[in-house]
Amino acid sequence: MSKHHTTDNLDYPSDLNLQKPLFAVGIVALIASFVGYFLDHDQFFFSYLTSFSFYSSIALGALFFVMLQHLTRSHWSVVLRRIPESISANLPIWALFIIPVLLGMHSLYHWTHADALAHDPVLQGKEPYLNTTFFIIRQIIYFAVWGFLGWRMHRKSVEMDKTGDWGLQTLLRRTSGPGIFVFALTLAFASFDWLMSLDPHWYSTMFGVYFFAMAFQCLFAVLILVVVFFWKKGLLKNTLQKSHLYDLSVQLFGFTVFYAYIAFSQFLLIYYANIPEETVWFLERLNGGYEYLAYFYLFGRFIIPFIVLLPKKSKSNPAIASTIAGLILVSHLVELYWIVMPVLNPHGFHFSWMVITSFLGLGGIFFGLFFNTFSKERMIPVNDPKIEESLRKH
Amino acid sequence: MSTNYEYVPEPKLIKGDHTFGSITDLIAKTPLSSTPPLWYLAFAVANLLLIVLLGAVGYLIWDGIGIWGLNNPAGWGWAIINFVWWVGIGHAGTLISAILFLFRQGWRTAINRFAEAMTIFAVMCAGLFPAIHVGRIWVIYWVFPIPNQMGAWPNFSSPLLWDVFAVSTYFTVSLLFWYVGLVPDFATLRDKAKSKAAKISYGIAALGWTGSFRNWWNYEKAYMILAGLATPLVLSVHTIVSFDFAVSLIPGWHSTIFPPYFVAGAIYSGFAMVLTLMIIARKIYGIEDIMNIDIMEKMNLVMMVTGNLVAFAYLCEGFIAWYSGYIYEQGIFWLYVVGPYAWGFWILMFCNVITPQFLWSKSIRRNVTLTFIISIIVNIGMWFERFMISVASLSTDFMPSSWDYFSPTFWDIIIYIGTFGLFFTFFLLFLRFLPMVAIAEVKGVMPQADPHNYDEHTNEFIEAKAEPALAQQQKLEQKNQQV
Q1: In chain B, which residues have their Cβ closer than 8 Å to the Cβ of A203?
Q2: Contact between chains at B312 and A166 (C-beta distance less than 8 A)
Q3: A262 touches chain B (CB under 8 A)
Q4: CA-based nearest residue to A106, from A140, A135, A74, A83
Q5: What end-to-end distance do the CA atoms of chain A give, in Å?
Q6: Does residue A167 belong to the interface with chain B, where contact is any CB pair within 8 Å?
Q7: Is residue B297 pLDDT above 80, yes or no?
Q8: DSSP letter string over A299-322?
Q9: In this predicted complex, what is the ipTM?
């Protein structure tokens, strides 16, 4: 135990059993979605992919965050590191949820259609990359890499709780270096596979960075919501302090700007050069009602958070920070919807209830897994060499 | 259970047994003592190169940009390469001074002053090229939107015009930021100076700084605001530089990843340049306790990360070029590898993709000689990156019938070399007359600045942990009690 005296109980309270209701919501909503499969299977798969990429982006953001904190040897984040660790620790299980996407490839990805391929020289050119077998192999590689990293970052950190062996800190740092390197590559290609290849003709070199920017922004939003939720439940009230929330908000603010920078650069360069093969992607998404989604997320994940989070006071105010975090997460879903759905309904916006059920379903499972992992260990890495600096933060 | 790994504690930022006083003496010594002969020698060489530059630019203005090796497909040559190269180098200074400040990275204090000076002089070198490459420099004021009787306005939708605003704003804010940081140190020099001339000139520069609480309070506010302003500016400058290329239709230029990729490349080359300069300066001026091996290792790590980001961007570009199915895009990347400039491509791959991988090794990161060599290789690589982008993409354009090989002339080369004269003239003046390390800021990261006078548990006074002044006071009190 550290020299610093925490007044909080560091064990997850046994009476706060959230995973059960979450799993229940998840399973019920997923079953409802599967009913939707028999009504409109294309709609089911597109809705599923939207939600799947939503939660995957959060898990990947968490994995990146944990590795980054080890690499930069940050103090400030040590007390809250167990939260993202517990999110990305479930990546090996989360890998199972790619299976419906693989089963729905024919609905989702135009390039899987043999007849389309036969008449399309562009798709024929991409066939060495865009083919069903290689797509599946790539998904296995991605999740093997992410699953291993997520599991290891959590496992070794928990081991440090128990053994107090500070050498694990070095081990984790050494894993993070190559880890982040491999992570960047796999994340970029996963975003090409999941989202960019929905429009198999369209391409943007920025797309991987764009997906990463969205993911990392949302991770901070999730962390803020979790921290504020814990406070509401009376957990870690004196351990996680206002200054930690402030730091999270600063990072959220910074990566909000980063996201806007990346998203705007991608848009501007395509808009400015005005090459039809590229602009068509935005053209479809700025017509037929989809433009309102774009306005929504423009305000929801950049303009409003930027203005509201600018003053110092709002960064450490739990109510304001968590409201903005919630808005950003909703905007993230809207933006993913805006990326995915025009492929299914190119002529105009069409809402389906399956988006909601798959979002709730996967969300229930995702956060159920998180609380399940989180509740099993101490809520902060108690034996981390830098825990004291992190606790003493003011 | 125990691992084979040892815990590596965070190293001390300042080596040696320094006190606040010894840090001041160490840094203030150089500007306040007489000029070393070696400095005169270096300054003479730099001046000679500067004169060469002025002569070459004079001839360029006299004769026109036809003296460069530009040809019909390759209408942009060394001028734009050198512009991007120098402005990229400048970026490290702002990253170190502003972004690392916002991230509360204490190690930046050892090098921020030094790197910011480099930024300002590098941006000056960079600014020269767009100005002279327009050909008719006497109407360069046309780039500014000045109301005039001809009704002629610059093209506001051109990124080249955005460059004018971005680079000039960036230069102004960097200069201000640098100056604000210098104010407390100017006051230190004013107070320590023996000669009247030095006292007066440092005194004027110090703006009446007294070191009072109110002074510091305003200073910290201003510094924070300027850091906040400089951060988006530094990103915007190289983003807009990348727009110069990426908004066009030229294969090899039109790529959406250009903005972050250019910024990463800029930081990569800038850190290399800071390392090159720092490794020489810390030896000559004997400030190895401050600009120490741990700082060098951290900089090497930043270089490794940004180098890999650049490599990642190459990979994305190459892959998407193939994936796009667009034959010109595929063609230009194929021509990079096997075309007339393949030699440039392989130099680039060696310098920017292979070289940073050596930095995975801790012993190389901590080896001064190897770091010096790597830092120079990186800067060569980043020059070739811009060469491949501008020259190689242009000279093999859409129609093979119009392809032409670009060769630089004597004037291309001499102007580039001449900019080193401009850079080093200013840099040597900086080393001679200004404190090259931010004295006040370095003190802020020393253990003495964060004293824990009392034990946390017993609440007993501990002399070893205490501030010297407080320790002395305590001793006096004890003596008085005994008496």
Answers
A1: 320, 323-324
A2: no
A3: yes
A4: A135
A5: 21
A6: yes
A7: yes
A8: IIIIIHHHHHHSSHHHHT-HHHHH
A9: 0.90
Q: Which residues contact B28 (CB under 8 A, 6 or more apart)?
A: B188, B189, B192, B435, B439
A173 CB neighbour count, 10 Å cutoff: 18
- In chain B the first and final C-alpha atoms are separated, in Å, by 58
Q: Do B323 and A261 make contact, defined as CB atoms within 8 angstroms?
A: no
A201 touches chain B (CB under 8 A): yes
Å from B427 to nearest chain A CA? 31
Q: At what angle do helices A167-194 and A207-232 cross, to 10 degrees?
A: 120
Single-letter code of the amino acid located at A226: V
Residue bearing tokens 């230069």: B171
- The size of chain A, in residues, is 394
Round to whole Å and give the CA distance between B297 and B294.
5
What is the chain A residue with the closest CA to B320?
A205
Higher per-residue pLDDT: A368 or B103: A368
Q: Is residue A356 classed exposed, middle or buried when 0-12, 13-18 and 19+ CB atoms within 10 A define those classes?
A: middle
A vs B, Cβ pairs < 8 A, gives 100
Q: In this complex, is the C-beta atom of A138 within 8 Å of any C-beta atom belonging to chain B?
A: no
CB contact under 8 A, B247 and A272: yes
What is the SS3 assignment for B147? coil
Read off the pLDDT band of B176 (50, 70, 90). Answer: very high
How far does CA B213 lie from the centroid of its chain?
Answer: 32
Token pair for B471 = 């320790």
Provide the 3-class DSSP secondary structure of residue A327: helix
Contacts of B457 in chain A (CB under 8 A): 3
Give yes or no for residue B5 having a pLDDT over 80: no
List the single best residue of B8, B229, B257, B358 to mutate versus A (max A Cβ within 10 A): B257
Tell me which residue of B181, B198, B197 sits closest to B189, measured CA to CA: B198
Q: Do A126 and B323 touch (CB under 8 A)?
A: yes
| Cβ distance of A265 and B3 shorter than 8 Å | no
Give the chain B residue whose CA is nearest to the CA of A257: B232
Report yes or no: A203 and B323 within 8 Å, Cβ to Cβ.
yes
At A347, the pLDDT band (50, 70, 90 cuts) reads confident
Please, are residues A249 and A224 in contact by the beta-carbon 8 Å criterion? Answer: yes
Distance (Å, whole) CA B477 – CA B461 = 13
Closest B-chain CA to A204: B256
* pTM summary value: 0.92
Cα dist from B52 to B44, B48, B415, B418, B419, whole Å = 12, 6, 8, 6, 9
**Lowest mean pLDDT segment, chosen from B46-60, B256-270, B415-429, B449-463:** B449-463
The identity of residue A394, as a single letter, is H
Question: At residue A2, does pLDDT exceed 50?
Answer: no
Residues in Cβ contact with A347 at an 8 Å cutoff, skipping those fewer than 6 apart = A288
CB contact under 8 A, A273 and B249: yes
Give chain B's domains with CATH numbers. Answer: 30-437 (1.20.1630.10)
- The residues, ordered by sequence, that sit 6+ positions from A52 with a Cβ below 8 Å of its Cβ are A97, A98, A100, A101, A194, A358, A362
Characterize B72-85 residue by residue with b for buried, 16 or more Cβ atoms within 10 angstroms of its Cβ, and e for exposed. Answer: ebbebbbbbbbbbb
Chain B closest-CA separation from residue A39 CA (Å): 35
A73-112 in b/e burial notation, b at 16+ Cβ within 10 A?
ebbbbbbbbbbbbbbbbbbebbbebbebbeebeebbbbbb
B300-359 per-position pLDDT tens digit: 999 999 999 999 999 999 999 999 988 999 999 999 999 999 999 999 999 999 999 999
Q: Which of A392, A364, A373 is nearest to A153 (CA)?
A: A373
